[in-house]
Amino acid sequence: MSVQHKVKIGLVGLGNIGRTHIRYLSAMDHVELVGVCDTVKERADQYAVECGTDAYYSHTDLFDRSGLEAVIIAVPHYDHTTISVDAFERGLHVMCEKPLAVHVNDAKKSLAAYEKANREHPNLMFGIMFQERTLPFYKKLKDIVDSGELGRLTRVTWINTAWFRSQAYYDSGDWRATWAGEGGGILTNQCPHNLDTYQWLFGLPARISGHAHIGKYHNIEVEDEVTAYFEHENGMIGHFIVTTAESPGTNRMEIIGENGKLVYENGKIILYKNRISMLQHLRESKSGFDNVESWYTEIPVRKSEPNGHKVVTEAFVQAILRGGGELIAHGTEGIKGLTIGNGIMLSSFKKAMVDVPFDADEYERILKELIRSSKYKKAGRNETDWDMSGSFSTS
């Protein structure tokens, strides 16, 4: 009987998200966890014992001594770039937590390192942990939008304020909610999934008008409430409204096309199907007021399909084993949602609409100046062990 090959994986970062990965990695048949790494020695030692593996205190030691083939990167955001570049230089497969980077210029460094490594290792896998692409309702929205059934899209409005975070959350960990440690607030931490889902469904906007409020409700130096307006080349407009200070929160997406309207909210997708194109109707109707006749349908969704972090990592592992294959989200796509997020903040800082692509150097300069001039002092310094399951979308 042949011995089943297992992908040798190392995990860098044992904070709350890193521990989320540990919980499912131990149950995966095709994975051998050959090392865990954290700059906090006691934490690395503890989880190494629990997982029956070796502890490392720097990612380069893990890379050079553990015999790993692939790495999962689950560290504070700025370090995503350094660690991914070092991994690619060694020909390692990479699964990076969101966001790919804090700003577009750093994302480009990771992409350049991957492209260089991929020329030497054509089967090199580069994934990013956009597990919300596996959620059944978002998958169904993708299916309907891609089918073209709605015809020409005219408007998307996404209100996602179901990201409530307390002051205690922000006080945990000295890196959270700071320009130097996290690089931003809700757009950098909670909303990379939403920004990715938006571009996954509709593509990048051509122009962005962003309005970000810094520490409006929390004692933080980064944004906790954002409203953005997008214009797309095809004429579609978008609205994006998010905050970490609203309870009860809302997650409602409206997608308007000439052939009808999709509404996702409260665990349902409703299609209002137009009998004829609304654009045709507005041109040809002899009445000044009559709406298009439309039919109400609740779209069936397979809610029981597997989803979440494990599904993303399983696709990554299987692609490595096969020497290629589809990923839930390829790492190179990480720059797209990041572009929207950076564009929103740049527009807000400049108090002006920005074109996409924008001047990434300008945004990086603004970010560096915010770090340099920061006088913000955190109330708390110790990382708190949170149960992160409550922070992940499940619908």
Automatic annotation (TrEMBL):
One of its GO terms (molecular function) is oxidoreductase activity. Its EC number is 1.1.1.369. InterPro entries: Gfo/Idh/MocA-like_OxRdtase_N (IPR000683), Gfo/Idh/MocA_Oxidoreductase (IPR052515), GFO_IDH_MocA-like_dom (IPR055170). Residues 138-262 form the GFO/IDH/MocA-like oxidoreductase domain. The keyword Nuclease does not apply. It comes from the Bacteria. Pfam families: GFO_IDH_MocA (PF01408), GFO_IDH_MocA_C3 (PF22725). This is Inositol 2-dehydrogenase/D-chiro-inositol 3-dehydrogenase. It comes from Paenibacillus solanacearum. The gene is iolG_26.
